């Protein structure tokens, strides 16, 4: 069993309001989102586009519901922007997270990413870095991770993601091997590994000692296959329901949970399953996800 004092459960607002596809859940309010998170039994949240920018307003709304911010996505452009510009944006986000009491920031390199391009196939179109770009990325992440840890007390976790320069197992391997474990950890996302054809269990076993944040999401294999065969974009796949909550798709979570438990994982495990809320009621799916995790982990 996981240590209930050291492992917490969160859920991402993307099931209620999608940052990349604003029409998905455009009618759902911030208050509805965080209220339903709490009702479903989650204590952590990541940050969505409808969350108040005023820290005191946000803190009050979350505290009323027993919710805390556990992580926020950060878009890195280390390959295409001067480091100083990236650092300035990074520090601004770290200041917000520090004020909110968060201990994790989730960075994803967005230079040349096709994940947000609605007409670009997600399979076969991703950018491949050369050796010099790999050096820029890894050096930059080490610098950001050091800033994050030493100046703010926050851990930088790197989010591998479909359509980005770090998507596939060989890319994750190269990044992990060429970054400092003291400053760069892994945001382990079951759904993105499965989507690109990797085995989430194998990835958990390989990087158990580097994982500091977990995204629990499942995939519908038939939808992913359709995305591949019909050369659809990542966002078209989201609309079609490529992702779903743990226990509702193709991934076997039992052995993944066992690996994380055996490794002594501490921190948040966050349900992050972007779907069309008009087709997949966010509150209903949150309740189902919470029930599944309780049954499988005892949390």
TrEMBL record:
> Where does the record place the Xylose isomerase-like TIM barrel domain?
38-295
Q: Which reaction does it catalyse?
A: scyllo-inosose = 3D-3,5/4-trihydroxycyclohexane-1,2-dione + H2O
Cofactor(s) required for function per UniProt = glutathione; Co(2+); Mn(2+)
Q: Which UniProt keywords apply?
A: Cobalt, Lyase, Manganese
Question: Which EC class is this protein assigned?
Answer: lyase
The GO molecular function terms of this record are: myo-inosose-2 dehydratase activity
**Cited Pfam families:** AP_endonuc_2
Pathway in which the depicted protein is active: Polyol metabolism; myo-inositol degradation into acetyl-CoA; acetyl-CoA from myo-inositol: step 2/7
Gene3D superfamilies referenced in this protein's UniProt entry, alphabetically: Divalent-metal-dependent TIM barrel enzymes
InterPro entries the record matches: IolE, IolE/MocC, IolE/XylAMocC-like, Xyl_isomerase-like_sf, Xyl_isomerase-like_TIM-brl
Keyword set includes Disulfide bond: no
EC assignment: the record states 4.2.1.44
Alphabetized PANTHER family for the sequence: HYDROXYPYRUVATE ISOMERASE, INOSOSE DEHYDRATASE
Family per similarity comment:
Belongs to the IolE/MocC family.
Name the record gives this protein: Inosose dehydratase
Species per Swiss-Prot/TrEMBL record: Blautia caecimuris
